[in-house]
Amino acid sequence: MSTDDTVLALRGVVKTFPGVKALNGVDFTLRKGEIHALLGENGAGKSTLIKVMTGVYRRNGGIIALDGTEIHPANTGDAQDLGISTVYQEVNLLPNLTVAQNVFLEREPKRFGIIDWRRMNREARELLLGYDLDIDVTAPLNSYSVAVQQLIAIARGVSMSAKVLILDEPTASLDAEEVASLFNIMRDLRDRGIGIVFVTHFLDQVYAVCDRITILRNGTLVGEYEAATLSQQDLVSHMLGKELEKAVHEKVGQAEAQTRETLFELNQGSSDVLEPLDISVCAGQVVGLAGLLGSGRTELCKLVFGVDELSQGDAKLNNQSIRFSNTRQAVVAGLGLCPEDRKKDGILGPMSIRENMIMALQNKRGWWRYIPMKKQRELAEHYVKVLKIATSDIEKPINQLSGGNQQKVILARWLAAEPKLMLLDEPTRGIDVGAHAEIIQLIRKLCDDGLGLLVASSELEELVEFADKVVVMRDRRKVAELSGSDISQQTIMQAIAGQS
Amino acid sequence: MNKKFLPLYVTSSLFVLLFLVGSVQFENFGTLRVFMNLFTDNAFLIIAAIGMTFVILSGGIDLSVGSTIALSGVIISVLLRDYGWHPIPAFAFVLVLGTLFGAAMGAIIHFYQLQPFIVTLAGMFFARGLSSVVSEESVPITHMFYDNVAMFGFELPGGAWLGSSTIIALVVLGLAIWLANFTRFGGRVYGIGGDAQSAALMGVPIARTTISVYALSSFFAALSGIVFSFYTFSGYSLAAVGVELDAIAAVVIGGTLLTGGYGYVVGTLFGVLIMGVVQTYISFDGTLSSWWTKIVIGLLLFVFIALQRYLVRRGTKA
Ligand SMILES: Nc1ncnc2c1ncn2[C@@H]1O[C@H](COP(=O)(O)OP(=O)(O)OP(=O)(O)O)[C@@H](O)[C@H]1O
Ligand SMILES: [Mg+2]
């Protein structure tokens, strides 16, 4: 088909879903010993291409060849047997099984025909230690955070990879250090001759590890490029089909913040897992939460929203003391939480985009005050337009959307409820560069109308771009607060590392 | 203490507690003999409920169990009486038939993406109807082999008896524990119950596993039918009505989550024993109507489902 070192070759691959042509004659060539970025906007067809390669979906046309022979995997198991190992977008592991079982499912070590639990646990532990995960592998998977789960999924995929390793947005919930160690592992595999497909929306990561780049747009191939010779600007315009416009905005300085009314305040508040801390958000202010994995960002969001109980200290909203015993009270009081783990806490799979969007608003109004269908449709259509959600129809089940578009629906759900204080935990996870800029613009506009915002993010660049104040967390306590012109990637990084 | 074993601790302690209460109230209750009788009387239910455990662990349900028990009893008795078969080939025949029946239900569930509830409900009517077609009235079994097997057993201290049906039930239990927790198949069943979509993306063969789970359940139901025929020495198309519901109750009381993915085979054994001990208590008392068994089991079920909800909630919060 092509040169000798091609391990996986796709030619003219077509995949249609009812009403959508997700892939339209796509070519893709993966060589041995290369890291190949697969890029494109949300809904461009990246995940679909991967699922076609690995037998999750049956292709409607085209050829897929592994080492020069055509293959027809009927399911993921077949693909694994052929030497293609995949870490799919979102964590796809089994919440009820132990960590070790998740790592070794379908290739459990056996002894005398029975599963050798001791060996399985030992090997899983050793494997995960290579990712700096020193955890109890006999605990069920769902006792760990998404980020840890993601690392476990990667460890599983990497340890199975024989010829081809496919990683669909593996870094979405990892922080810089983990990304760096993942990259080392990837380079090591590349040097051993394995072909790696890497999907991401972080363009700097593309340049950090990738050798070549394939870009898709709307299910068609835009082109294949050498990473070394394609500028970031060209890359973005190939992806979006147009230039990217950057938003600029004036930060609200310390002095100005004092003149604004305080929207939310936490005084020496703590939960079972957090040290006591102070935090305040003014109307129209964006407060960023920075910190490494497990530093307590998510826990802080949960505390503010009333998912976790305040064990001491007090919380005030508009100068009134608040204490929520369930999340509905928080929603009614004007809070919104866009959660980190959209698969577990966010999307309701078989329900439509519209139903998913109006959920929070309906909950806020109470179930007995039904939102008229016309209003629901208007709302849904409005957000599909402003957030540029790639869908033909608002009645489509949400699980048929691409990952990034699902994230946008969840964001719309909380925007539609018109909260006074919005908590966003990794809001732009898995969202493409174009939509990223648009979402930030939209959030800024809402803040100008008086919305207060608390954003937890592991993307420092994003925080620097739009936060008026950054609270840095480490080891479940607040270690620094930066505001106005003090905010830069460097200052945040120093505070995270503890050298301020 | 490991949190995931909590329901198991609750069930087993409840059994011990009930047994102690009976022993304190009635003399002769707290004996090995009464304990062993729990097994003898409920061996067929233990077997059927263990099959059900796999189905529920995988996130499904099997309503055809009671009918399958009746059907295998009827087929055996007719083969013996009208066709002069020896019981052993007759047993093999119903076991194979049961397995195929279950596999067919599993295949329909998987390939047509239908609700297990509906498919096995249809299976329930089908098997019940078929047993009536084979023979409407009760068919007695008279065969030397039956007498020998029914008499077979070991005398234990205190006049207790370890009979053939108990032995079969214990062997099934051991086999099921091995299958659930020490084979790849077991991991797949738990995995599909936890999240079928993720399991598929991890390379679990969903079709093969689903079909095997229902085949296994019907195999155990057919075996349970064989054991049941040793109690009644007959095959009757209206026997074992509602046994599937007893089996489901035992599984749930045994701590297995109805939504799948969590639970243990041993729990199911305790579930059956708890139901048995309640029944024994009521018969010792003598004044209570036997319907009280149902009422107590209803209450227990309610309590256990509430407990599970609580544990699941706490689990997701932690
Ligand atoms: N199961 C499905 N049924 C119907 N349509 C689908 C299904 N899966 C994907 N699609 C559609 O196919 C298109 C491509 O989706 P895909 O998930 O491949 O995008 P993606 O490039 O991975 O995007 P993202 O960056 O957001 O993950 C989208 O328009 C999506 O709505
Ligand atoms: Mg995707």
Report on the architecture of this protein.
The complex is a heterodimer of chains A (500) and B (318). By secondary structure, chain A is of the alpha/beta class. Chain A has helices at residues 46-53, 76-82, 99-104, 117-129, 146-160, 176-191, 203-209, 232-240, 254-259, 297-305, 327-333, 342-346, 353-365, 373-386, 403-416, 433-448, 460-466, 489-497; strands spanning 6-17, 20-31, 35-39, 61-66, 69-70, 84-87, 110-111, 114-115, 164-168, 195-199, 212-217, 220-226, 262-270, 277-282, 286-290, 312-317, 320-322, 335-338, 421-425, 452-456, 469-474, 477-483. Chain A has 3 domains: 3-240, Rossmann fold (3-Layer(aba) Sandwich), CATH 3.40.50.300; 242-334 and 420-500, Rossmann fold (3-Layer(aba) Sandwich), CATH 3.40.50; 353-418, no CATH class. Chain A is built from 18 helices and 22 strands. Chain A has a 6-stranded mixed beta sheet with strand order 6-9-10-3-11-12, sandwiched between helices. Chain A has a 6-stranded mixed beta sheet with strand order 18-19-20-15-21-22, sandwiched between helices. In chain A, helix 11 (327-333) crosses helix 13 (353-365), helix 13 crosses helix 14 and helix 13 (353-365) runs parallel beside helix 15 (403-416). The N and C termini of chain A lie far apart (57 Å). The model of chain A has no long low-confidence stretch (mean pLDDT 83). By secondary structure, chain B is mostly helical. Chain B has a single domain (3-317), classed as ABC transporter involved in vitamin B12 uptake, BtuC, CATH 1.10.3470. Chain B is 75% helix and 4% strand. Chain B is built from 13 helices and 4 strands. In chain B, the strands form 2 sheets. In chain B, strands 1-4 form a two-stranded antiparallel sheet. A two-stranded antiparallel sheet of chain B has the order 2-3. In chain B, 47% of the residues are buried. The mean pLDDT of chain B is 92. The A-B interface holds A 56, 75-77, 79-80, 86, 88, 92-97, 101-102, 105-106, 108, 110, 113-115, 140, 142-143, 156, 307-308 and B 4, 178, 181-184, 187-188, 190-191, 193-195, 197-206, 261-262, 315-318. The structure holds adenosine-5'-triphosphate and magnesium ion. The site of adenosine-5'-triphosphate has 21 residues of chain A, from strand 2, helix 1 and helix 15. Chain A: GO terms for molecular function: ATP binding. Chain A: Residues 8-243, 257-500 form the ABC transporter domain. Chain A: Keywords: ATP-binding, Nucleotide-binding, Repeat, Transport. Chain A: This is Sugar ABC transporter ATP-binding protein.
